[in-house]
Structure formats: structure tokens, C-alpha cells
Design brief:
Blueprint: E1 2-5, H1 7-12, E2 20-23, E3 39-44, E4 52-57, E5 60-65, H2 66-71, E6 75-81, E7 84-88, E8 93-102
Parallel strand pairs: 1-6, 2-5, 3-8
Antiparallel strand pairs: 2-3, 4-5, 6-7, 7-8
């Protein structure tokens, strides 16, 4: 997966320390990916399962599974505008009001 994190999003994620990772996932049962992602989760670092992948961008590990990767056509840009994360790729904006939750 090609993952880009803009400067604004990187600043908003500065609280993610070395002991954490950002989990990207959505409800596979929904047919509308635009409305299935409401928040990204910052979780304690853990072992990655065989069905998951990680990408490190700007010293932040992003965790996702194959379904997430396919839904975004293997390309995702994470931006931060107006207090929310924006998920988009070269073709469209998927969601422009994604929050963040630390667990």
C-alpha cells in the first residue's frame, strides 16, 4: 500500500509515541467505505498478525489489513484539516471527518 501522511496530519499525530501504533480499519460489512471510518485508533504496540501489515511513515507505524488496503485501491493520503483527518487518494475523498481515539 502506498501511504502518504501530509505535514498537517503528521503534526496532529505527534502524540503517537514509539510504544504506540495507528490502527486503520473499517466495517467490512458496509458497502459504503466513505461512511464506515469515523476514527483512527492509536493502540499500544503489539505483534502483527499474519493477516495484517504495517507501514512506517514519519516514524509512525500504521497497522491495517488486506481488506482496508483493497478498499482504498492500495493508495491512501491522510491529511488533517479543520480538526479532522481526511482520507483520500488520487481519485476521491473518502471521508473528511475522521477523528482519533487513544486506547
Amino acid at each position: 500500500m502506498e501511504l502518504t501522511v501530509t505535514n498537517n496530519a503528521n503534526k496532529a499525530l505527534k502524540q503517537v509515541g514509539n510504544d504506540k501504533m495507528v490502527q486503520l480499519s473499517f466495517d467490512k460489512g458496509s458497502c459504503d467505505i466513505v461512511n464506515t471510518i469515523y476514527e483512527i485508533l492509536v493502540i499500544p504496540r503489539r505483534t502483527v498478525s499474519p493477516i495484517e501489515k504495517t507501514i512506517t511513515v514519519n516514524n509512525i507505524d500504521f497497522l491495517f489489513d488486506e481488506s482496508f488496503e483493497e478498499a482504498y485501491d492500495h493508495q491512501l493520503v491522510i491529511d488533517y484539516v479543520g480538526g479532522f483527518f481526511v482520507f483520500k487518494n488520487k481519485n476521491q475523498i473518502f471521508n473528511n471527518r475522521v477523528g482519533i481515539k487513544f486506547v
